[in-house]
Design goal:
Number of strands: 2
Largest sheet: 2 strands, parallel
Helix content: 40-55%
Strand content: 5-15%
Order of helices and strands: HEHEHHH
Strand order of the largest sheet: 1-2
Number of helices: 5
Radius of gyration: 16 Å
Shape: flat
Structural class: mainly alpha
Length: 96
C-alpha cells in the first residue's frame, strides 16, 4: 500500500532507514526534500519469492527461542509515545 511507504518516511527518525519489502505496481509519491533534509535512506528489497518468504517465516516461528533476544518489547500503534520513552529509559535493552 503506497500510504504505508509515505507513513514510514514520515515517521522514521532523523538519518533513519525505511525498508520496503515486496513488490507492487503502485506509485508512492514522496516529498524528495524530506529524504535529503532528514537524511533518510529508502531501500527496496525483493530477495525471495512467496515460497521462500513462507519458509523464512516458518523458520522464525520454529526458532523463536534463538531469536528472542532480537525482539524488544512490543507496543501497539496507539501507544506510540510509550516505546520511545521505553527506549530512552532502557537504553541497554533497546536495540540501536
Amino acid at each position: 500500500m503506497p500510504e504505508l511507504v509515505q507513513t514510514a518516511v514520515r515517521l522514521v527518525s532523523q538519518a533513519g532507514r525505511v525498508v520496503v519489502v515486496g513488490l507492487s505496481a503502485h506509485d508512492a509519491p514522496l516529498r524528495v526534500g524530506d529524504l535529503a533534509f532528514r537524511e533518510i535512506d529508502v531501500l527496496g528489497v525483493s530477495c525471495c519469492n512467496g515460497d521462500e518468504f513462507a519458509e523464512a517465516a516458518s523458520l522464525v516461528g520454529r526458532r523463536r527461542g534463538a531469536l528472542a533476544g532480537l525482539v524488544t518489547p512490543e507496543f501497539s500503534l496507539d501507544q506510540t509515545p510509550t516505546p520511545i520513552d521505553y527506549a530512552i529509559r532502557h537504553r541497554a535493552e533497546a536495540m540501536e
